[in-house]
Amino acid sequence: MIPTVMRLRIKSPEFGLRLWIPLFIVWLLLLPLLVLLVPFLVAIELVMRIGGWRYPVFRALALVVELIASLRKTEIHVHSSSSRTRVDISIL
User: Which residues touch 74 (CB under 8 Å, ≥6 apart)?
Assistant: First the structure.
């Protein structure tokens, strides 16, 4: 399942920020782009097969989707001791 929400938290002595960024809106905005790219991907696949190359374009696309899906439950923590600033990113 692809990630749906990203939580961003920035904390410093002077400043604090918490954001919930809905990634499902990003995926919905990218969906029409993917639909527009499918005919080009089919054409590339046909040209590559006619030319004798065996690189499966649609398998590569499936691997990209699998890579995006594996980002779920990723947490990134960055701490700066000099400025006492902390940045936390969680992908849910």
Answer: 3, 89, 90, 91
Q: Would residue 26 count as lying in a domain?
A: no
Q: How many distinct structural domains can be found in the chain?
A: 1
Structure tokens at 27: 């995926």
**pLDDT tens digit at each of 92 positions of the chain:** 889 999 999 999 999 999 999 999 999 999 999 999 999 989 988 988 888 887 788 888 889 889 999 999 999 999 998 989 999 999 99
Using alpha carbons only, give the angle 72, 77, 78 rounded to the nearest 5 degrees: 145
Question: Which residue is listed with tokens 């990634």?
Answer: 23
Q: What range does the domain containing 91 cover? A: 1-7+40-92
Using DSSP, state whether 31 is helix, strand or coil: helix
- Tokens in use for 84? 């006492």
